[in-house]
Every structure is written in structure tokens, then in C-alpha cells.
């Protein structure tokens, strides 16, 4: 069997299996998705910088749109660049999800977004749930150059569901380039008002047929996600040498200090981009394990990750990993083999904190807590753990700072840290 053919399907199936813990496993206490009682609040970023954001609508003319019947159509992406500003004000608010009002006005899209965000969708549309963004605000004057992190969301999601993680990185001096992967994202709103929904195939497919269709397109899906990341890096390289009239961050990006990061299926996109492109100096895979096949993508070209890797995952009991005992044993053997082949300075960090699950790397548990104090505290704690390990890894490899976290025993009760590399 070609492993690449199963990867994206495994990510999606594993995500469903893992998230289903919240309904049936008493050891997981993620909050109920009841209608919101209080509006959840995105935490104030911990760093000294304010948050700016600007969106770009870019088309890769070298790649056809494989979902279109128009042979002249090419791959189009919305890309949101989050960047540090000098002015940090806890009162600053911006849209949590740009174009939410436009999406809400279209019944089919409204229905999809209500399924994704449940009782919080009206609060997102109204702006009651907000980010700390000041759109198109002036870029911080210092430092002169910023390291860059590319972020990819999971299947059926959106990068805006990772606002807390993105804002925290930006507040500490990183530019985060969040790609809305068209047809993989739940919905993408383009600058001309067009909104493209996730490709789910014909409406009359049975669940089994939908699964088979997803499996058949897995290799192409991961390749396309990786190509999206590399295209956006190409575009930013071009714009970084332009003038500020054409690009807000012209000459401010340190493109020698670039990382790729993704959550769930986006983790596979990031990993594949790093396998193919040495311009990325570090790679972060957030709970993107490809159970029960492999930890990282494998293709016939045999390419492996050449950058230090942070494989940051939630602990999942075998009963929730979507495979037989024999398959899971083979998965762990394969995972060990793949991680051993990574460069020195790579880490596998398994978070074991209370309530941790696949969605904990995003804002989902915080939003679903609906103001419940205990559930909110748990969600914030797990977000903090994620942010702490992600930022420490990036500080080490993009800012070249001494970072003792991975050798510390302070968090061993909540995290198992294993160093890898040859």
C-alpha cells in the first residue's frame, strides 16, 4: 500500500476518533458544546507587542485549480499576515473571523459555520467574540527584521480557530503567515466577495463513500497543502524586496529565519513542505500524527525532514487512536523510526495535562467553555502549555536563544519530552 494515499484520511479519521473522547471518556473533561451563557474571551497575548493583521488574495498561476471545470482556473488562496505593532492595548479588538457577516448572510454557509462554532457563531458574527487585532496598523519599528512562521489549519477548519496561539507568537516578535487552504478550510472569503466552501464531494455520498473519496485524494491533498506553503514563501520573498506601498512588511521579514507549523492535517502540510524545502529552518507538527500509518508523511521520493522538528501531541489512549492493537504497535514502531531520522535537536513532546485532547491546540475548548470557570481555566492552561513549548522551540531555532525548557523537569508531570536526532 502506498502510505501517502492514506495520510490525509488518517489525519481526519484520527481527529474524529480523538475528539469523540469528549463524549464518552470520563478521563477527558472537555466542556460541553451547549449554547454560550457568557461570551468567551480570547486571552490577552503575553508578549510586549501589539497585533496587526492584513489579508492578501493571491493566485498561483503555476498550478491549476483541480476542483474547477475551467481549465484556465488556477489555485487561489487567502493569506493573512499577522505582525507585531508598537502599540499594545488590552482594549484593542478586531474581528475574530473576517467576513463572518458575509458568511452568515448565505444560508448554506451559515449552516456550516453554525455546525463548526455552535452557539458561539452568533457571537462571532456580532463581534462579541473578538481578537486583539488592529487591522493594517503600523508595523513595530524595532526590531528591524522579524522571524516568520507559516501556519496551516486542519481539514474542515480555519486558521482563525488558532487565534490565541497566533496572537501569542506575534506579541513576542514573530510574523505569522496563516494560510486559508482553499477547499480544505471550512469556508474561505476572497477579496471580491466570493466564498468557497470545503470540498466534501457530491451531497449524495454515503459516509463510507465519502471516506473512500477522502482516502483516494489524500496524497494529492498533502502535496497541495505543502505547495501552498511554498508558494506563499515564494510570494513573500518577492514582496519583501519591494517597497512598502506594495507590501506593508517590505524589507522587514527575516527570510533566513522561517518555520512551518500546522495543526492536525495542517501538521502534515507543514511536515511535507519541510521535507521538500530547505528554506524552512524549523518545523512544528501539532497533533498531526497519521494514525495508524505513520507519524509523518511518506512519499515515493523518500524525502525526510531536514530541519529540527517539534512533534507536539496530546496523549491519546489506544482505544481512541483509530486502529487495531497490531496496527497501533506498528504505528509506534514507524513513529520511532521516523523521529530517529530527524536532525539533532528534534523533540517529541506528549502533553498529558488534564482535559488535553486534539482540539486543545486551538481555541475550540475555550470557546466551548461558554464562560464556565472550570472549563475555561482548563482550556487556558492547555493553551498556555502549547504556547510555551511552541515559543521555546521557535526562540531556539529562529532567534537562536538559549532555551532550557526542553531539558527542564518542571513540566514532566504534564509532558513527556523525548529528544531525537542523528
TrEMBL record:
PANTHER family hit by this protein: PLATELET-ACTIVATING FACTOR ACETYLHYDROLASE (PTHR10272)
UniProt-listed InterPro entries: AB_hydrolase_fold
One Gene Ontology term of the molecular function aspect: 1-alkyl-2-acetylglycerophosphocholine esterase activity
Domain of life from the UniProt record: Bacteria
Originating organism: Alloacidobacterium dinghuense
One of the GO BP terms on file: lipid catabolic process
Pfam families documented for this protein: PAF-AH_p_II (PF03403)
Signal peptide: 1-23
Keyword set, alphabetical order: Hydrolase, Lipid degradation, Lipid metabolism, Signal
Keyword Isomerase applies: no
Protein name (Swiss-Prot/TrEMBL): Platelet-activating factor acetylhydrolase
Amino acid at each position: 500500500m502506498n502510505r501517502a494515499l492514506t495520510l490525509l484520511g488518517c489525519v481526519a479519521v484520527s481527529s474524529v476518533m480523538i475528539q469523540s473522547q469528549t463524549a464518552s471518556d470520563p478521563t477527558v473533561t472537555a466542556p460541553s458544546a451547549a449554547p454560550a451563557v457568557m461570551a468567551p474571551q480570547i486571552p490577552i497575548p503575553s508578549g510586549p507587542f501589539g497585533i496587526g493583521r492584513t489579508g492578501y488574495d493571491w493566485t498561483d498561476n503555476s498550478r491549476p485549480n483541480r476542483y474547477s471545470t475551467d481549465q484556465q482556473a488556477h489555485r487561489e488562496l487567502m493569506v493573512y499576515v499577522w505582525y507585531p505593532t508598537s502599540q499594545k492595548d488590552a482594549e484593542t479588538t478586531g474581528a475574530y473571523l473576517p467576513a463572518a457577516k458575509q458568511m452568515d448572510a448565505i444560508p448554506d454557509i451559515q449552516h456550516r459555520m453554525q455546525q463548526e462554532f455552535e452557539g458561539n457563531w452568533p457571537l462571532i458574527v456580532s463581534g462579541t467574540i473578538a481578537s486583539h487585532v488592529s487591522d493594517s496598523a503600523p508595523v513595530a519599528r524595532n526590531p528591524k527584521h522579524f522571524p516568520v512562521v507559516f501556519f496551516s489549519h486542519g481539514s474542515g477548519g480555519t486558521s482563525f480557530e488558532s487565534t490565541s496561539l497566533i496572537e501569542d507568537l506575534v506579541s513576542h516578535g514573530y510574523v505569522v503567515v496563516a494560510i486559508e487552504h482553499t477547499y480544505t478550510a471550512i469556508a474561505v472569503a476572497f477579496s471580491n466577495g466570493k466564498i468557497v466552501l470545503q470540498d466534501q464531494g457530491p451531497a449524495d455520498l454515503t459516509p463510507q463513500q465519502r471516506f473512500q473519496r477522502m482516502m483516494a485524494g489524500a496524497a494529492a491533498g498533502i502535496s497541495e497543502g505543502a505547495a501552498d506553503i511554498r508558494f506563499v514563501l515564494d510570494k513573500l520573498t518577492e514582496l519583501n524586496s519591494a517597497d512598502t506601498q506594495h507590501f506593508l512588511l517590505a524589507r522587514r521579514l527575516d527570510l533566513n529565519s522561517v518555520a512551518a507549523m500546522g495543526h492536525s492535517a495542517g501538521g502534515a502540510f507543514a511536515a511535507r513542505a519541510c521535507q521538500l524545502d530547505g528554506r524552512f529552518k524549523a518545523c512544528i507538527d501539532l497533533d498531526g500524527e497519521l494514525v495508524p500509518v505513520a507519524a509523518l508523511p511518506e512519499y515515493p521520493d523518500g524525502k525526510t525532514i531536514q530541519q529540527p522538528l517539534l512533534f507536539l501531541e496530546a496523549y491519546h489512549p489506544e482505544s481512541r487512536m483509530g486502529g487495531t492493537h497490531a496496527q497501533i504497535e506498528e504505528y509506534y514502531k514507524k513513529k520511532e523510526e521516523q523521529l530517529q531520522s530527524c536532525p539533532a535537536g528534534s523533540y517529541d513532546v506528549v502533553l498529558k495535562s488534564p482535559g488535553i485532547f486534539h482540539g486543545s491546540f486551538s481555541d475550540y475548548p475555550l470557546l466551548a467553555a461558554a464562560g464556565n470557570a472550570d472549563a475555561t481555566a482548563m482550556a487556558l492552561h492547555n493553551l498556555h502549555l502549547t504556547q510555551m513549548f511552541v515559543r521555546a522551540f521557535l526562540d531556539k531555532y529562529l532567534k537562536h536563544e538559549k532555551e532550557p525548557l526542553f531539558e527542564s523537569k518542571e513540566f514532566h508531570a504534564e509532558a513527556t519530552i523525548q529528544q531525537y536526532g542523528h
